């Protein structure tokens, strides 16, 4: 069974002391591909370094909405240059976050839109963060139409059916993470049953959102297997089928990843 963790923050300090062991456990669990998204300009450089040093690990580069209030001069030009690296496979993690509101909402929207347009110029998909900002995220995607270019993914999806359908209609993929395994996530599991098969992805969002029964502990990419199991159970299919579906979908979206 081959697994693809499409969103894992290996550059986080919580992996500083045992990254090699974390990756070894991932391989033992069948995780053969991992995408590591940045959150600011400094981590853009860091995720590329990690991708260079480890087989099967790839980078996404971008400015997270929590970093949108402090974008260094020349950052977009540098990100555009870094996007040419052979192991950079997406622009992300970008989006809007109205829960923390770390930057004014118009600023977040401007930073996201600039990066969507950058992604379209360089021919890469986007990885979208959305927290309590759904209508503005969907409006921006409808206006900028990245789904008509290289596409993108709604990372750590945790929304209702109508939002899923609107995102899919805009050409986006839907990625499920640890919350799919939580006991009170029946509504999310119901949505997971009806996502079009060719739009399904899985992730861990490590070190965050560890799935049941590890909730509250540091998450790591090996546990994407538990997300796959929950998705398979929701859809009533074998887990190896979900693994293969999400493997194919991730390679289709992240076209620079080696098959």
Automatic annotation (TrEMBL):
<keyword id="KW-0479">Metal-binding</keyword>
<feature type="binding site">
    <location>
        <position position="129"/>
    </location>
    <ligand>
        <name>a divalent metal cation 2</name>
    </ligand>
</feature>
<keyword id="KW-0378">Hydrolase</keyword>
<dbReference type="InterPro" id="IPR018228">
    <property type="entry name" value="DNase_TatD-rel_CS"/>
</dbReference>
<protein>
    <submittedName>
        <fullName>Hydrolase, TatD family</fullName>
    </submittedName>
</protein>
<dbReference type="Pfam" id="PF01026">
    <property type="entry name" value="TatD_DNase"/>
</dbReference>
<feature type="binding site">
    <location>
        <position position="93"/>
    </location>
    <ligand>
        <name>a divalent metal cation 1</name>
    </ligand>
</feature>
<feature type="binding site">
    <location>
        <position position="9"/>
    </location>
    <ligand>
        <name>a divalent metal cation 1</name>
    </ligand>
</feature>
<dbReference type="InterPro" id="IPR015991">
    <property type="entry name" value="TatD/YcfH-like"/>
</dbReference>
<dbReference type="GO" id="GO:0005829">
    <property type="term" value="C:cytosol"/>
</dbReference>
<feature type="binding site">
    <location>
        <position position="205"/>
    </location>
    <ligand>
        <name>a divalent metal cation 1</name>
    </ligand>
</feature>
<dbReference type="GO" id="GO:0004536">
    <property type="term" value="F:DNA nuclease activity"/>
</dbReference>
<dbReference type="GO" id="GO:0016788">
    <property type="term" value="F:hydrolase activity, acting on ester bonds"/>
</dbReference>
<dbReference type="InterPro" id="IPR001130">
    <property type="entry name" value="TatD-like"/>
</dbReference>
<dbReference type="InterPro" id="IPR032466">
    <property type="entry name" value="Metal_Hydrolase"/>
</dbReference>
<feature type="binding site">
    <location>
        <position position="7"/>
    </location>
    <ligand>
        <name>a divalent metal cation 1</name>
    </ligand>
</feature>
<dbReference type="GO" id="GO:0046872">
    <property type="term" value="F:metal ion binding"/>
</dbReference>
<feature type="binding site">
    <location>
        <position position="155"/>
    </location>
    <ligand>
        <name>a divalent metal cation 2</name>
    </ligand>
</feature>
């Amino acid at each position: 069974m081959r697994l693809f963790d499409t969103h894992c923050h290996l550059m986080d300090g919580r992996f500083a002391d045992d990254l090699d062991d974390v990756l070894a456990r991932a391989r033992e669990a069948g995780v053969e591909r991992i995408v590591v998204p940045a959150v600011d300009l400094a981590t853009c450089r860091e995720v590329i370094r990690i991708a260079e040093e480890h087989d099967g690990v790839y980078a996404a580069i971008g400015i997270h909405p929590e970093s949108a209030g402090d974008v260094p001069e020349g950052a977009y030009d540098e990100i555009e240059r870094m996007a040419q690296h052979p192991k950079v496979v997406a622009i992300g993690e970008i989006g809007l976050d109205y829960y923390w509101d770390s930057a004014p909402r118009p600023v977040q929207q401007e930073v996201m839109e600039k990066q969507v347009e950058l992604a379209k110029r360089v021919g890469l998909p986007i990885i979208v963060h959305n927290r309590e900002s759904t209508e503005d995220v969907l409006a921006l995607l409808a206006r900028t139409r990245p789904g008509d270019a290289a596409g993108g993914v709604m990372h750590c999806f945790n929304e209702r059916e109508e939002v899923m359908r609107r995102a899919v209609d805009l050409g986006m993929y839907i990625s499920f993470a640890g919350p799919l395994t939580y006991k009170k996530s029946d509504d999310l599991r119901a949505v997971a049953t009806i996502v079009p098969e060719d739009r399904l992805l899985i992730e861990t969002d490590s070190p965050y959102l560890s799935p049941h029964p590890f909730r509250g502990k540091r998450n790591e990419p090996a546990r994407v297997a538990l997300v796959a199991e929950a998705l398979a159970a929701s859809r009533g299919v074998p887990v190896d089928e979900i693994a293969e579906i999400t493997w194919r979908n991730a390679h289709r979206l992240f076209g620079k990843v080696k098959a």
